[in-house]
Amino acid sequence: ISPDASLYASYGKGFKSGGFNPIGARAALRAAAVGAGLDPDGVYVEDLYDKEVSESYEIGLKSQLFDRRLSLNLAAFHTDISGAQQFEFYPTVGLQTTISIDKVRVRGVDVDFNLNLDSGTHIYGGAGYIDGKIKQFDGNPSFVGNVAPGAFEYTLSLGVAQDIALTDTLELVPRVEYNRYGPIWWDVANTPGTRRAPLDLLKARLSLRSDTGWEVSAF
User: What is the DSSP letter of 147?
Assistant: First the structure.
């Protein structure tokens, strides 16, 4: 749309083959359910799981502003997944299994920026939001509407780095970065008490660089 800004749209289709769980997994889980006084028909793990197919759509904007000192990118996306494969662990019977969620819808937005100042300071960061929902699950229809497992609800990041010239050939670059990962569910049932709270990470790095190409860092 201009020498410093462009719009894009993309479509993609993904595929992951199906597979099988450990032999007798479903029978073992049904037996464990009976032993615990639960309905064995509530077991949704199958001995086989289906292929996973996804269709993704994305639109976005990429731009460079203020004499290209600032890069700013925006994107919105929507993904429909059929047969979403999800890892499930059952410690009571020592089983690691994969289940197939019939339909999952994921949509979201993200933004990132990178600002380079004349002083040698670099400021960068981004934010993203994901709305993932289970739209169909024949194994247990009561899970429809649950949050899709494995996706952070949001992400945030902010970092700053400074180029410090020591000599004509050596440069010192300290960098500090903060990341926040929003809450996440690990299972299709959204089992109470298993939602992980947001996670905060603070990272720091000090690098010594040479214009001949080598670099030494402590982090």
Answer: B
CA 102 to centroid of chain Cα atoms: 20
Distance separating alpha carbons of residues 203 and 176, to the nearest angstrom: 6
* Contact predicate 120/137, CB 8 Å: no
67-93: pLDDT as tens digits: 999 999 999 999 999 999 999 988 888
d(CA 81, CA 101): 9
CA distance 199 to 183: 8
Q: Provide the residue type at 11 as one letter.
A: Y
CA atoms within 13 A on the CB side of 79: 23
pTM (global) more than 0.85: no
* Rounded distance between C-alpha atoms, residue 37 and residue 178, angstroms: 47
